[in-house]
Input
Amino acid sequence: VEVESEPHKAVASEVRRRVARIQGVCVEIVEKIDAGVANREVIRREAESLQITCTVFVETVEPLLRLTEQGCWIGRKDQPSASFPANGIESIVYILDLLLVQLLDAVMNVKASEESWGARFQNNRQLEKMSSHHSQLRAMNSVVFLVSLLMKRIDVESTLFASVEDHPDLELRKWRTVVHVEDFYGKHFGFHYTPEIRNLLKVINIARGSIDKVLTENNSDNEMVKNISMLGWGWVYSNVTVLNHMGISVDGVNEKFGACQSLDATIEQVRTLFNLMEKPLVANMSVANVTDLVGSNIAMDMVVHIPGPDHLSPALKANKLGSSSRIKNGTAGRLLSSQNRPQGPAVNPDGSSMPTVGEEESPFVTMLKSNGSFRELSTRIDRFLKPGGNGSSLAKGLVVHFHGGGFVSQSSNSHAVYLREWAAYIPDSVIISIDYKLAPEHQYPIALNECLHSYLWAIHNSHQLGTRAERVVLAGDSAGGNFALSVSLKAAALSARRPDGVVLAYPALLVTLAWSPSRILSFFDPLLNAAVLHLCLRSYVPEGADANADPFISPMVAGEEMLRGLPPVSVVTGSLDPLLDDSVMFAHRMRAAGRTDCKLKIVKQLPHGFLNMVQVDPMALSAMQQAAAWIAQYLETSLKL
Output
């Protein structure tokens, strides 16, 4: 229930009402349950236990609800009429409300067992649902308790974050034992997501369970053996409920798989999971093939090489990106456009032409292509299959994109699913996505310098990319959002060309071990759980660097003068993202610096990484299209949805 003027007050009231209703129904069950109802004593004990939980929960959650109603948190006080939720604290209240809806439904159905003979056949199923959501309510009570502790350590009107360095009692190992994260998994996992997202995340849980099994129990170094083992465990986890009903028990496997029980994630685990779509686990089905099958058909999708500092033009060298950048052999980029574009040769400082890398054929053509007569035929087929004419005109705009992956994983290839859509939506543009070097092998500032160098090189060699680059936009998601903003700050500091706009999706803008209300959601987030989040943050920042003070590591801490020097910035994020408060806090700081042109859109029920979910969820698709609309606006070009 939402009231347009004060939605935060309406939802807080709903939480109180639902808890009271659950308590009332439990009282009725205990007092009036028919002696003939199956599992009568079990139901009675469960109802009595739930009554007690609700009593404790009311005491725990009331301070949080009062604070929510006051609207004094950053995000709500900036825009009192903003849609709900407007920050991490409201997201937690929103999740609570969704859980209470499910729990109340289960309790009502259990009560109906005594009133309807036919309902008794559903008794066990509804009791199991009631018990499961009851366990989740106890776990959420612990989450609310942690938020209450956090509230006592920060000024809620000036910040959303408390650093572990300043508050050692907030260290993960101390907090993790408070929340039983496994209660959020199992048959009733993902009650707070849309059905489409929930089904996708269930698959990810299966993948996580399989990967953890293989990496912790399989001693083989053979990649093929590991892949086969993961497929085998994937089948087990996919059918664990059926196996349990058949009385078949698999050691170490239960229905609550996917929950991160360990406090210490490893780089291998994170990369294996995040890069899973790039591994040809099933036949030859790589992510490039998948995106060609389900994504938009575009004319240009190729790999280009961005040379290292030895090939810098005098203009770039003047920007002090020489050997200090630690860029040795250059980097690769993925070049995309809806149209074929003319590509003139890039020129070395001595006047010689740089070599270029040709276009990648579609998977069908690559499969056909061979020696002899097939070569000419396959080239003709490829030109026929791809739109875009003969490539006679340069695009107006240039989009430089930096992919996400927690600083430690993924590539432009793993983000092609939405990059191809952007290329189709914005026909008068060229997109280049940069494959920077990954942490922890390459820590700050290596990847940032690569991104900055690639941005400046792309501008100075725009004709080589098929664009006039009359207007330029930087874009990035997650860790890539950090780079997009940091490159903008760096460009301003070097008096280089400033982009005409920056578009971010769920960016990581405070790269420190700090807690906020939304980051507490990482305790039960299936993609970005607390152990993974902390691993990624630690991996990027080298020893001795101060991420709380360096704006090129944590753009959120940039001074007001630096923020005023940024181009227009637009941010889209999800209400269920542990990094939500990064975006909310950054938007608050931009407004405080007088940047009223900063846009923030929070989409309900979307998790971290939703840009890669556009093929399965309409809300994710809408959010991706919003980002495309901002890019087109900054490029001053048309949008074709």
